[in-house]
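Contributing new complexes? Match this layout with iron/sulfur cluster.
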Amino acid sequence: MKQYHIHTIGCQMNVADSIRIGSALEQTGYTFTDELGEADVVVVNTCSVRQRAEDSAAGKLGQLVSFKRQNRNLLIAMTGCMVPREEAGKAALYKRFPVIDLLFDTLDPQRLVELLPDRIEQPQAGASIKNKIGVTAFVSVIYGCNYTCSYCIVPLRRGQEQSRPVEEIVEEIKGYVRRGVREVTLLGQTVDAYGHDLPTRPDLADLLQAVNEIEGLWRIRFLTSHPKMMSYKMIKAVADLPKVCEYFSLPIQHGDDQILKAMKRPYTVAFYEKLADTIRKTVPNLSISTDIIVGFPGETEQQFLDTYQLLERMKFNEVHVAAYSPRPGTVSAEQMEDNVPIEVKRERLQAVEQIQEKIALEYSRALVGTTQEILVERMEKGRWHGRTRNNKPVFFDNPSLPEYEGFDWHGKLVDVVIEKAGAWSLVGHVAGTPTIIEQTQVETEVCEVEPVAGKRLIPLTMARN
Ligand code: SF4
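Output block (do not edit by hand):
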């Protein structure tokens, strides 16, 4: 029996793509293996958002050289963000990594299928990549991006937006639900741009409506939204559709209009704040997560302070912060000087992390004593783990009652009373069962932080500039 292996680097979109590619290979009689040494075909699904991700792909290809030496017939293919769109770029990549037999577009696994030796038209019994899917699954619904943020490599590598038809997405999700999936996350670089390129022009709200009707599915999430694409119809869909979770991933990237302009983000801070306000007023019990870049070329202390104050004002539930690093080929790398010193970037990054930890802890503490609905995803370090509808991780133990001994909570929706709050997670007990207060301390329970003196870090960095 022929076997394949997929090594995935990067974000959830790549994870979702690897499952789709694996499913295509399984249609030809191949089965999945976790062992590189057993594989007849190895696919490396790459990411190029950061240099580290590209280095990781290079490392994996280096490792594959010895496997290829032992098995001359081993077929090695690469896909994902590192695969350039133009032929000259592809030729350069073949030259750099002679171990690669095929570069193919993520959207076109057929290119790989056609090269498979001994393929048959029948799926075979055996390991499937879909067995790796648990209670939650990621589903890519729109690829590429039509924006041109000056720091971002995605449009160069992934091209223009391409949406998948609603019916195709619904069928894929129905297949996951048959395997026990209860929550899906619809993915796109600009997920709220979904559908504009399809003949009937459905939008994200229409897609959410269609997915909401799938029997056996309990929760729906979507990310990442672009502030300029979000419509009131979509916001209302989140408020009205019972399965859609109250969670928006809405990157602002910076708190200063001039930097936003240099980033080619086509909105102002005021526009963003108004949008977030509308979302908060329309969707009850909402969480908003955002992305922030610190140390963008030319970022002054005052401009960083604008971001810092934005965070204090907006009180996001989650913030993903990164220090700017230039990606070759992007406008900011080619035309702007990376002139914020690394130690200043680190300080600013730390300041954002600290203020956010304080805000997250405030949100968590407000949940102590409340009952939260958790979808249980897995056992982690001896405790059951799941998330609230608005994405806060929660841990709980099996209740110490005879009827719960060895009880399997996996894939269940359970009401948990929150007892302890950390910045990034909560601990509680199943409603109607004994509390856990007397139990031993756990790693996840406490994340106390000293309140960050908002201005403390600022003069430090000011002294430097
Ligand atoms: S919208 Fe997102 S994916 Fe598109 S260019 Fe900007 S940062 Fe990159």
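Reviewers usually confirm one structural detail per submission. For this one: Residues 145, 147-149, 152, 154-155, 189-190, 226 surround iron/sulfur cluster (CB under 6 Å).
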